[in-house]
Structures are given as C-alpha cells and as structure tokens.
Amino acid sequence: xxxxxxxxxxxVHLSEEDFxxxxxxxxxxxxxxxxxxxxxxxxxxVTLRFNDKEINNVTVVGPFRNKTQVELSKxxxxxxxxxxxxxxxxxxxxxxxxxxxxxxNMIERDSVIIQNRHIHMNEKDALEYGFKxxxxxxxxxxxxxxxxxxxxxxxxGKEFVTELHLDTDDANAFLIDSSVEGEIxxx
Length: 187
What we know:
The protein is mainly β. The chain has helices at about 15-20, 75-80, 125-130, 170-175; strands at about 1-10, 10-15, 30-35, 40-50, 55-65, 70, 85, 95-100, 105-115, 120, 135-140, 145-155, 165, 180-185.
C-alpha cells in the first residue's frame, strides 16, 4: 500500500494549565490546519532551553493535551545534550526535562520525546488493507538515498487521514520531500 508522507518539525503540545502559566490571559488561536484533526498550528511560539542552550520560535500545536509534550529530533537532542527516548505520543514515562519559555514566563517539565515513526491510518484503510492499531510495519522509501524504515507504528482512527509521519532527521536522511510516497511492507 502506498502512503503519503508528512514531515514533522520540532513542536510543543501544551496542557491548558501550562498554557495559562506561559500565556496569562492568552488564547490558543488557530493559525493553520494540520492533516490530523483536531490538531492545528497555533499562533503561539515558545523558546526551549536546557542548560545554556536555546531554540527560539518553536511552534505550539493545539488543541490542549492532558500533559505538556515536546517533540524533538535526535539532532535537536544532540544540540541540547539531552538523551531523549523514542516514544509514542502521550507516553512521557521516561521523557527528558526541558524549560519552556514565553518572555518572563517559564515552566520546566519532563516532556521531551523523539516521536516514533508512525502512520496515522483511517479505520477504512486499515480494514481494507489488513492493518491493526499498534501493528509495527516497515516502509520502503524510493529516493536516491532511499531504503527501508523499520519500526513504523500504525495508529488507527476514524477521523485520521492515512499518512506516514517522520521527523526531520528521518526525512533528511532519505531525501524525502512532499512529492515522495512510501510503500508499506506488511510481512
């Protein structure tokens, strides 16, 4: 089965409580639609800090989550000298600590993960092609630096748009751009 590829840059999901600390009297405003609803790019940006290193203008993705989560690439983690775990979204069991800053407002949370490779798959496609939620598959990438992506997790949902999500490190390593599709290998 062919699958579209979405490339996910570093971003932050905030809990409503943490948002209110960082943006007192602010609102999380919709700026741009994302492929996986109800997620959206908001108009808010934050700074991430660990020790003496900072990355500015990091996008806050809405809507609010139960817990604050920061998704970074391995390259970002090398920059910060953080040893973040590869994990599924919302699994912050062994997440790394980071400061999230907006002006003079700051929180520090165990919230950094490297998001695992995953395919959002609508339930209709999953049924038609024989995939199950939490199934792990491989994806063939056919580019000049292509290859096989291992340990790709299937996430099924009624409203999902079927799409492979990779971080910028994976996308850059395989020279993936918006025109490239992957092929799911189910064996």
